[in-house]
Amino acid sequence: MKQFFKFMFASMLGFILAGVVLIFIFIAIISAAISSKGERTVAIADNSVLEIRLENPVKERTSKNPFEDLNFDLSQKHDLGLNDILKNIEKAKTDDHVKGIFLNLSSVNAGMAQLEEIRNALIQFKTSKKFIYAYSEGYDQANYYLASVADSVFLNPEGSFDWHGFRTELMFMKGALEKLEIEPEVIRHGKFKSAVEPFINEKMSPENRAQIAQLIHGIWNYYVQQVAESRNADAAVFQNAAYEMSVRTPEKAVELRLVDKLAYTDEVQSALKKASGISEKDKVKFIALRKYNKAPGASKLFSGKKIAIIYAVGEIGGGDGDENSIGSDKLSAAIRKARLDTSIKAIVLRVNSPGGSALASEVIWREMLLAKKAKPVIVSMSDLAASGGYYIACAADTIVCEPNTITGSIGVFGLLFNAQKLLNNKLGLTFDTVKTGRFAGIGTPTRPLTSEERDIVQEEVERIYDTFITHVANGRNISKAEVDSLGQGRVWSGIDAKRLGLVDVLGGINTAIEIAAKKANLDNYRTISLPEGEDVLKKLIEDFSDDVSAGVTGKNFGTAYDYYAQVHSLLKQQGVMARMPFDINVR
Question: Could you say which of 18, 67, 155, 370 has the lowest number of CB atoms within 10 Å?
């Protein structure tokens, strides 16, 4: 009888769980159906104002998944990718119904190079003589970078203005590993290959501190110069204000000409009404960016000639990957498809990656090399294309990046963990082994590497590093010795990378597409995106799992989530890797 109830309750639980999943799927399908009906072309009223909000993370491209707009807390996501954000700003420039843009910048969640592309698109929009107004209850150094191009920058009278410069803070785990009695086994080439430093140091090495200092000061100086030019102000004044952190009140922000006016929301609305040519008694005709995406643009002649934009986003590994990671199988297949398709006349590889597996990077590099022999191949670097991200880019005909793109990090490291003391002393676990060869147990976490095993891994690291710098030397048409002097794991800003010959042109994705069209002798063409979307049902289940996991983790960790994510990423780095040594977020 006890067994009967046990199986009965188990069956009931399984039935209930299956029912819950089916309900979520049903809701998602209904939502997608409603959303698809809303994909009709929308009409834009006269005197409209395009409202741009960027609270959610800016992805490289808009997802085509019909379930993408549904969160599993039943709220709606309205995220456009960078590709459509840029397209819609360009469309609004010539749309007679749109009188201007309102940057409603409560927060901005994008990388510096992405911000650069959006900012440049806004600067181009201003050539139409239409207005751009910006408002926030509090500016940080990310959302203000966009706001600084506006004709009028408004700040709430009791708002905040963070103006204090950039910083990089690295977390080191040596002490924690020692307490756990875990010994990292690190083999690397390059004095700047600092991805392993968190495991073996308690602070930055002199070499790592030097490269980070040069990188962050270079990006900050460029940032201040761009802001000063947009605000028609003296960059030195802005530099000093950040150094002294003297912008501590809204009034001071106005005094230094960082902000034009302190205003409440209703006052900003009045200014927008006047600028868009409607009466004070009427409502501002806002058109949200997502809705405007459905508005018709300028008609173009259809062309059978195509440029393929292939997106490589996230850490590099084997397999298929997903929208947030690069799988060598799937990305290689996309490059191969573009190479073999005769209607595709050129390829633009859009890279936003810190690197990852050296082997997976090699697999992708090979496809890039084959594609280059068949048609023009251009690389567009986003926020970062470092280590493995640069590995897959170096074979291109032309490499394009933004001035604040982080690139380089040409280096290789091996990382293993010896947990023998943890297992023996803290858990009371011991191990005995039978093996058929001297090196059959190489890499096991139950004991340290022997000197011979360490030599074997070091030899492998050196071999892969030599392959890496050979690819770069051939792709960039410079000597291996010169690549080695620029490499050894060191990262560079886009400005320095261009000066050193690691990239060719400063610019964004549209610059890369223009170069591709010119090299392919194309006057009329259309662009397509690869790789193609994921299986819808698989993505639906993954989204459910990711939403629950991210929600729980984010709630528990709060502002410390970035540190959790770094540890989680670092602990996955087993074997020989070509990865950027640290992550950078601008706030």
Answer: 18
The DSSP secondary-structure symbol of 558 reads: G
Please give the structure tokens belonging to residue 449: 């590497």
Assess whether 405 and 516 both reside in one domain: yes
Q: Cα-flanking dihedrals φ and ψ of residue 47, to 5°?
A: 60, 35
Quick check: is 193 catalytic?
yes
Same domain for 332 and 251? no
Q: Does 214 reside within a domain?
A: no
Phi-psi region of 298 (alpha: psi -120 to 50; beta: other; left: phi over 0): beta
**Alpha-carbon distances of 475 from 367, 378, 381, 390, 397, rounded to whole Å:** 14, 12, 16, 11, 8
Q: Is 443 helix (H, G, I), strand (E, B) or coil?
A: coil
Do 334 and 387 reside in the same domain of the chain?
yes
The answer to whether residue 129 is catalytic is no
Q: What angle do CA 569, 571, 573 make, to 5 degrees?
A: 80
Q: Whole-prediction pTM value?
A: 0.85
Residue 139, strand partner residues? 161
The last residue of one of the domains, among 258, 292, 326, is 292
229 located within any domain: no
Write down the catalytic residue from 59, 91, 193, 539.
193
Smallest CA-to-CA distance from 306 within 516, 70, 539 is with 516
Looking at the fold, whether 112 and 255 belong to one and the same domain comes out as: yes
> Which one of the listed residues 194, 276, 328, 387 is annotated catalytic?
387
CA atoms of 98 and 284, how far apart (whole Å): 12
Domain tally, the chain: 2
Domain final residue, candidates 266, 292, 318: 292
Q: Which two tokens stand for residue 384?
A: 């970062």
Q: Got the DSSP string for 258-298?
A: S-SEE--HHHHHHHHHHHHT--TTSPPEEEEHHHHTTS---
Beta bridge partners of 169: none
What does the pLDDT profile of the chain (587 residues) look like in tens digits?
Answer: 555 445 555 565 555 655 555 555 555 555 544 444 445 678 899 999 999 999 999 999 998 765 555 554 444 455 799 999 999 999 999 999 999 999 999 889 899 999 999 999 999 999 999 999 999 999 999 999 999 999 999 999 999 999 999 998 889 999 999 999 999 998 887 665 677 888 899 999 888 899 899 999 999 999 999 999 999 999 999 999 999 999 999 999 999 999 999 999 999 999 999 999 999 999 999 999 999 999 987 666 678 899 999 999 999 999 999 888 999 999 999 999 999 999 999 999 999 999 999 999 999 999 999 999 999 999 999 999 999 999 999 999 999 999 999 999 998 888 899 999 999 999 999 999 999 999 999 989 999 999 999 999 999 999 999 999 999 999 999 999 999 999 888 899 999 999 999 999 999 999 999 999 999 999 999 999 999 865 555 555 555 445 444 444 444 544 444 544 555 455 455 556 666 655 555 55
Task: Count Cβ neighbours within 10 Å for each residue of 161-180 and write b for 16 or more, e otherwise.
Answer: bbbbbbeeebeebeeebeee
Per the structure, the complete domain to which residue 525 belongs is given by 306-579
Say whether both 320 and 264 belong to one domain: no
* Tokens encoding 580: 């950027």
Tokens representing residue 374 in the block: 């068949």
Q: What is the DSSP letter of 141?
A: T
